[in-house]
Every structure is written in C-alpha cells, then in structure tokens.
Amino acid sequence: MSASTPKKNSFFGGAGILTAGVVIVKLIGALYKIPLGGILSDAGFADFNAAYNIYSLLIIISTGGLPVALSKMVSEANALGRGNQVKRVFSLSLATFCVLGTVSFCVMAFFPNQLANLMNDSHSAYSILALAPAVFFICPLSAFRGYFQGHSLMTPTAVSQIIEALCKLVVGLALASAFKETLKDEAMAAAGAILGVSVGCALGAIYVYFCYRRHVRGLPQTHDEPEDSRTILTTLARLAIPITLSSSVIAMTNILDTSIMLGRLQTALECTEEAARQMKGVYDKALTLYNLPASFMVPLTASVIPHVSAAMKVKHRRLGAQISETALRTTALLAIPAGVGLFVLGEPIIRLLYPSTDVAQAGWMLSVLGVASVAVCFMLVCNSILQAHQLVALPMATTVVGCALKLVVGYVLIGDPDIGIKGGAVSTVVCFWLIAVLDLFIIRRTLPRSLSLARVFVKPVGAAAAMGLSAWAIHGLAYQLMVKLGLFLAMGEDEKPLLDEAGRFILGRTGVALSVAAAIGVAVIVYFVLIVVTRAISKEDLALIPKGERLAKILRLE
User: How far is Cα 495 from Cα 488, in angstroms, rounded to an integer?
Assistant: First the structure.
C-alpha cells in the first residue's frame, strides 16, 4: 500500500493499543484512588482536587492543542511521504513545548499560596507546589506522544501512561500514608499523594525520549524540502490555539466551579472553610468515578484526528466520514451503558468504594453525574471529528456556551440551602448535554455524508435501558439475599440477630461488593446479547478493526 493511502485497519488497531493501555491505567488508577479515599479525609481529598484543577489548566495552556496539531501535521506529512517536513515540525514543536513547560512550572512553584487562595482553599498550596515538576515534564512528554500518534504508533503513549500510573500508585500512596502518619496533616498527606504524579511524568518523559531515539534511527532518508520555520509555527498556532482555547474553557470552568462551590458554601450557606472542604470532598469522590467513562474515549479521540486528517488530505472523503460515523457509534455503544450503570448503581458503588464518606449524598450525585458522563464522552469525540474536518473554532464556541451556563446554574443552585453541593452535579448535566447536542447538530450538517442519529442512538439506548433495569433488579435481589444470609449467620441461640463476625462480614463491605458484582456481571451479559441480536454494531464497523471480518462471521453479522 502506498504512502498516500490511509490504512483502514490502523484506525482501530491504534485505538486498540491505546484502549488496552487506558484499561491498565484505569485499573491502576482504581487501586490508587480507592485506598487514597480511605487515607485522606473528605477535606484532604478536596485539597488534592483543587491543586489538580490548577495543574490541569496550566497543562492545557501548555500542551492542550499542540499535541493534536503536531499529530495532525505529522500524519499529513507522512501521508505525502515528506520525512524532512516531519522532522522539522517535531523539532519546532518540542522547543515550543519546553518553553511553555518552564513558564508553567514557574507559576506553580513560585505562587502556590496565591493560587490556593484563588480556589478558596488555602490548604491546597502544598499540593500545588508538589505538582510543579509534573507540569514541566508533561510538556516534552506530550510532544513525543503527539509525534508517535502522528505516525499511528500508540504503544509509546500507552506504556508511558502506565509508567505514570504506576508511579502515582506506588509513590503517591506511600508518601500520603507516610506524611499522614508522621506529620498528622491532611494537607501534607494530599501533597504526598500528588507528588507521585510528578515522579511518573518525569519517568514517562525519559521513556518516550528513548523510544523516539530508537524510532528515528529506523526511518528512511527522504529528499523533500521542508517548509520554513515561520510557516510551520504559524500552521501549528492556527491549529493549536482554537483547540487549546476550547480545552482551556473546561479547565478554567473547573477552577471557577471549585472557587464558586467553596465560596458559596462559605458565604451563602455560612459554612466554615473546613466544612466546605469536606462537602467538596464528597462531591469530588463522586466526580472521580464519573470521569472514568470519558477516560476510555481517549483512544478514539487520539485516533480519529490523524486518520481522518490523512484521509481528507489525500481526498478520501468517504473514508474520513466512515471513520467519523464509526467513532460516534462506538462512543454510543460504550458511553451510554456506562452512564446508565452509574445512574442505576450510584449509591451502591459509593458505599463499596468510599464507605467512610456521606454515602447517600455522594451516591445521589454519582447517579446524576452518570447522566452527564454520556454527554462528556460524545463531546470529546465530536470535538475530535470537528477538528479533523478543519472546524476547530466551532467546538470552542459550543464549549463556551455550555460552561457559561454551568457556572450560572451552579452559582444559583449551590447557594440554595435546600440543594447545596448537589447543585454542582445538576449544573454539570446541563452544561455537557448542551455542548453535546450542539456538536452533534453541527456534525450532522457538515459531514460529507449525512449522519443518522437514529443509527447512532436508538439501538444502544434500548439495549442500555434493558441493561439498567436488569442491573437494578439483580442488585436489589442480591443485596437482600446478603442481608438475609448475614442475619442467619449472626443468629444466636435466642434467635436474635447478634451480628457476630460472620454476620458482619456478609452484611458489610463484602455483601455490597458481591451484590454490585452480580449486578454488573448480569448487566454486561444482557447488554452484549442485545447489541448483537439487534445488530447495533455492523459488519462495516468491524471491518475497520484487525480480524474484524472474522469476528463479524462469528457473530453472524452478514
């Protein structure tokens, strides 16, 4: 196959590698966040997330659009066989990344107290300082990832993400436990937990650097004349700035949202800073779980842009549209059942993972946020599709509208004593569903061939609804069975429930875990059977993945 012809199988081949990496990273992340929630109090968890919101904004400003622009330019140059153009694009991008990383590092390292006060959480200063090295190392790391993704090489990205996650797990939990034990300070324990992120970013950057050195040595020589530096930087800026601004809107909204939450709780509800931090920590624990479905969209968003861009560059418009529609259907098949699962099992999941927090309040918020998680997934993939079709300004416009509404709704609801912190979850639903609906409307009007929303939504929604009902029913039955079994084992000679060790074991966390596991297991089976029976996934979709035709035959998708 010539250099100018995009490989269809490479789309989901690359996405598959990234998906495997994301699965591993999320499993490691679960092993990190669940015990971390036990080590840190709700207030300490709020400090952790306040610092992370500052870090996220500076990361997006430094790297938000550049990796996407870099992967797009590298992919297009590769499609045309322009190796020298690739080298110059990358060298200029890497230099830009390093400058931005140094500036961002200085902001966090020299002004942690000012940033903490901006968040209305003075205790988060230690965590902000601990994250300063991470914002420096993530910049060159992102440049290398963009380079490899432009070559459709997803393994370095996946492995570096695993390195980051392992360091966060091992170093972060160890330091959090040590600081809490020795210093008796929740704010310092949160800083210890977050210091693992800095260590992971440093080691990840070292790893991808050696991958790059090995990859460059194997590249063939080309004789193309690269564009001048000014032209390349102008193109990078033209592509990156709208994407960065669009991404920065959400990160800035998170910062303002945190500041508004903590401020409104302290003023309108007359809470102390300590009480506000505790309530925000409960919300953050629900927010951590709500973010999981969107994390699995990273492989799709990373693969959509370079592959659609390459197809459009060589005039394969139909292939670009097919990849875009397949990405939307895949998003529906993954995001909708995940959101339904969080909605139905919100409180049981919180009770299982964070039993020491306010389970009723966090469970309610997780159920509401489950509805929002579906919209977030569609927003991420829609933005990638629009960016790949050169419509980089539109996602920014829809994001600004949605986030502005979120801040207004959140300000009003959180200040209501009858709603309080729950208003944050409601405002999140309003924000991201508005953005997703606007993005889908734009895509339907601009794709080279018309997009059928019925084909994207109807079958996954139907299957997910049946799945949700089965999960709700199985969890209820299984939990009642655990209760009866626990009471039976705890029954004394006078037939009164004494709740001995065996009874407490069944009635406690193990009973919750078994009932949640049973509900999820049955739900997965029900959903898989329904999407196959209803042909929610097509033979054409499977043809884009390695061994997809064979899988289609097994599933009898003729």
Answer: 9
Start-end of H helices in 345-452: 346-353, 359-388, 393-414, 422-446
Q: Hey, what are 532's tokens? A: 């196959």
User: Helix 298-313 and helix 317-344: axis angle, to 10°?
Assistant: 170
pLDDT (tens digit per residue) in 99-149:
888 998 999 999 999 998 888 888 999 999 999 999 889 888 888 888 887
Amino acid at 231: T
Main-chain dihedrals φ then ψ at residue 521, nearest 5 degrees:
-60, -45
Task: Round to whole Å and give the CA distance between 35 and 44.
Answer: 13
Give φ, ψ of 69 to 5 degrees: -60, -40
* Partners of residue 39 on adjacent β-strands: none
Q: How far is CA 36 from the centre of its chain?
A: 19
Q: Check pLDDT > 70 for residue 2.
A: no
In the three-class reduction of DSSP (H, G, I as helix; E, B as strand; rest coil), residue 219 is classed as coil
DSSP label at 417?
Answer: T
- The predicted-structure confidence for 182-229, as pLDDT tens digits, reads as follows 888 888 999 999 898 899 999 999 999 999 888 888 777 777 878 888
The answer to whether the CB of 352 falls within 8 A of the CB of 512 is yes
- Higher local confidence (pLDDT), 87 or 556: 87
User: Taking the alpha carbons of 331, 380, 470, 518 in that order, is the dihedral positive or negative?
Assistant: positive
Phi first, then psi: what are they for 419, rounded to 5°?
-115, -55
Give the whole-angstrom CA distance, residue 72 versus residue 364.
Answer: 41
Cα four-point dihedral sign 132, 373, 63, 206:
positive
Contacts of 231 (CB under 8 A, 6+ apart): none
Find the length of the chain: 558
Residue 268: pLDDT band with limits 50, 70, 90? confident
Euclidean distance between CA atoms 379 and 396, whole angstroms: 11
Query: How far apart (Å, rounded) are the C-alpha atoms in residues 138 and 242?
Result: 21
